[in-house]
Design a protein that fits this description.
Blueprint (H helix, E strand, L loop, with lengths): L1 E7 L2 E8 L6 E5 L12 H5 L4 E5 L17 H14 L7 E6 L1 H12 L7 E4 L10 H11 L3 H9 L10 H11 L4 H12 L6 H4 L6 E6 L9 H8 L3 E6 L6 H4 L1 H12 L1
Parallel strand pairs: 3-4, 3-5, 5-6, 6-7, 7-8
Antiparallel strand pairs: 1-2, 2-4
């Protein structure tokens, strides 16, 4: 995938793109502490039939990390809408795949109803937490004082198979979280997103076809949350991915790819 930059009102956003020229689009929004690169080739694989894009949210990856920004879900939502308008992804032919924090942001985009979305994929989505889970609290502590050992240990708690945590993942996280203002953005985002729950009546505003994927052994956000989303999003379907943790697309990418491809096709 090719790397590009979008300047949105002075905010530089890095994004990856593949399959340009296809008339249907997929936007991938990553989770807390992650980046556009974390999707293990799924956007590239889908680019045969779709124009795929994944971005670094502001505060994460290589995108700008201003301390003047309030890292709230609503601000992320508005920036993503600006990003979609900037790239012409507002023609009703764009689907969104959001993981964890990215799922919460994607849901907010649709609930606001300012931009037409074709389909939605939520993967182990946040949005139903009243407060951070124990593992999220541990994640923040590690992010504030990262070492190779502590980062590896926290990531190993997020998967069922510790061999799915390559050294490059640990090293890249440490590099990103030690960039200027990255820790501030991480802490601010977690404090805002994990203590602000979507109101059920607003969740019912999501009326696009929705696929809800969840790792059966997710310790970051309990799999039971998938049923809350399913109950209140009318046109939705849940798939529980067995023997996977918080990011099933990293542990079973082929299975997740097929589920997403079949759903969007």
């Amino acid at each position: 995938m090719q790397g590009h930059w979008a300047n949105l009102n002075g905010l530089n956003i890095r994004y990856l793109e593949s399959g340009k020229g296809n008339d249907r689009h997929i936007l991938f929004i990553h989770g807390l502490g992650s980046s556009a690169d974390r999707w293990v080739g799924i956007p590239k694989s889908l680019s045969t039939n779709f124009h795929t894009l994944s971005l670094d949210l502001p505060g994460f990856g290589e995108s700008d990390k201003p301390v003047s920004m309030d890292y709230t879900i609503k601000n992320f939502r508005d920036i993503i809408i600006d990003f979609m308008n900037f790239l012409g992804l507002d023609n009703g032919k764009t689907s969104i795949v959001g993981h964890s924090l990215g799922g919460y942001i994607a849901a907010e985009i649709i609930m606001l109803n300012k931009i037409q979305i074709e389909k939605l994929v939520l993967i182990d989505s946040s949005g139903m937490l009243k407060e951070p889970t124990v593992l999220l609290d541990e994640y923040m502590s590690v992010a504030m004082n990262p070492t190779t050992d502590t980062v590896r240990k926290i990531f190993e708690q997020m998967v069922t198979d510790s061999t799915k945590i390559p050294s490059i993942l640990v090293e890249s996280f440490i590099r990103r979280i030690t960039l200027p203002n990255a820790k501030y953005a991480f802490k601010s985002t977690l404090q805002n997103s994990a203590s602000t729950k979507i109101e059920i009546e607003r969740l019912k505003l999501i009326d696009v076809p929705t696929l809800i994927l969840w790792g059966s052994e997710d310790r970051v956000i309990p799999p039971e949350h998938s049923e809350i989303f399913k109950e209140h999003i009318s046109n939705s379907h849940v798939e529980i991915i067995p023997d996977t943790g918080h990011a099933p697309f990293t542990e079973k990418p082929e299975q997740v790819f097929e589920l997403i491809r079949n759903f969007l096709a």
